[in-house]
Design a protein that fits this description.
The protein is mainly α. It contains 5 helices and no strands. The chain has one domain. α1 runs antiparallel to α2 and α2 crosses α4.
Length: about 130
């Protein structure tokens, strides 16, 4: 289990990538993000939510998040990011749901471990 300081450091790093670095790559350029950067933005959103539950990303995902500008990558680095992107953010016609299932499992494990529940409690008043 990561410490509070580690979770804060991860959050600071990922928020910097999400809100500063990636937008900086596209400064002065109109249009959408590249597919790799779109995948990183979506994954960063998931990671930031998971950090709330105390879950840190695996080493490979962390490397992809802090890898830098995709357009300046070459060779194996660029190929590695493309492979990661095809696994994490597949083509919309693809039906792979592995990452989403892992995230939902993490949230359910947290709910079971802490005893928290969603919705109205059993003794809650209903109606007016």
């Amino acid at each position: 289990m990561p410490t509070k300081e580690e979770l804060i450091a991860y959050r600071r790093t990922y928020e910097t990538v999400l809100y500063v670095d990636i937008p900086e790559y596209y400064k002065g350029r109109a249009g959408r993000y590249l597919q790799v950067d779109t995948a990183r933005v979506y994954e960063l959103g998931n990671i930031l939510n998971d950090l709330f539950y105390g879950k840190t990303p695996d080493a490979r995902t962390h490397r992809m998040m802090v890898a830098g500008n995709f357009r300046t990558k070459t060779g194996a680095n660029k190929k590695g990011m493309e492979v990661w992107m095809s696994e994490t953010y597949p083509d919309i016609r693809s039906k792979k749901k592995r990452k989403d299932t892992a995230r939902q499992t993490t949230m359910l494990e947290y709910a079971i471990r802490t005893g928290k529940q969603y919705g109205r409690g059993a003794a809650a008043k209903s109606g007016r």
